[in-house]
Amino acid sequence: VLALGSETDTRLIEGDEQHVLGLKTLEDGIALRNHVIRMFEAASGGDDDPSKLLTFCVVGGGTNGVQTAGELNEMVRRELPRDYTAISPDRVRVILIQDDPRLLPDLHPRIALWARQALEDQGVEVWTGTPVGQVGDGCLTLEDGRRVESHSTIWTPGIVANPVIRDLQGVE
134: burial class by Cβ within 10 Å (0-12, 13-18, 19+)? Predict the structure, then answer.
């Protein structure tokens, strides 16, 4: 038995992996939390365009992406504004981007609809049927050419086999 785990699937953004934050390990979670706090620090200090700093894009509308968007939204709209009083929660954007026509494609459509409504009620922008084209430093470009200015792209679309296992199987 070989149990080497998996890796984040970044094949859709090959070459742009350095511009995204993964969320598969505890270390990834800590890095994401620290990144979000750095964005609030920078926005408070007036270092850069605050809208770019306070826009958080979660790519992938499966269970991991939906949960991430919900928890991130809670953090940036309710928790951090207590410490960063100069930043109004209304200035913060959390965008959940899913290439599929609906969220949670593996679950019953009613559950997916309920999850979408709950996220939107809490201020998360949910974009379905919206494939990502490219992720750059400070922006995310959708396949239709629209750009989202953001320093924060969290990549949750899925996993691939560990390269050792993939090489053993001869599968790409």
Answer: middle
CA atoms within 13 A on the CB side of 100: 14
94 alpha-carbon distance from chain centroid: 9
Supply 19's token pair.
């511009």
In sequence order, the β-bridge partners of residue 23 are: none
Distance from C-alpha of 103 to C-alpha of 75, rounded to nearest angstrom: 21
Residue 1 has pLDDT above 90, yes or no: no
- The string over 54-78, giving b where at least 16 C-beta atoms fall within 10 Å of a residue's C-beta and e elsewhere, is bbbbbbbbbebbbebbbebbebbbe
Tell me the two tokens of residue 153. Answer: 């792209």
Instruction: Write the CA distances from 112 to 64, 128, 166, integer angstroms.
Output: 13, 12, 32
Which pTM value belongs to this model? 0.86
Read off the tokens for 88.
Answer: 């109004």
Tens digit of each residue's pLDDT (9 = 90 or more) over 140-157: 999 999 999 999 999 987
In terms of DSSP H, where are the helices of 50-142?
50-53, 63-74, 80-83, 109-121
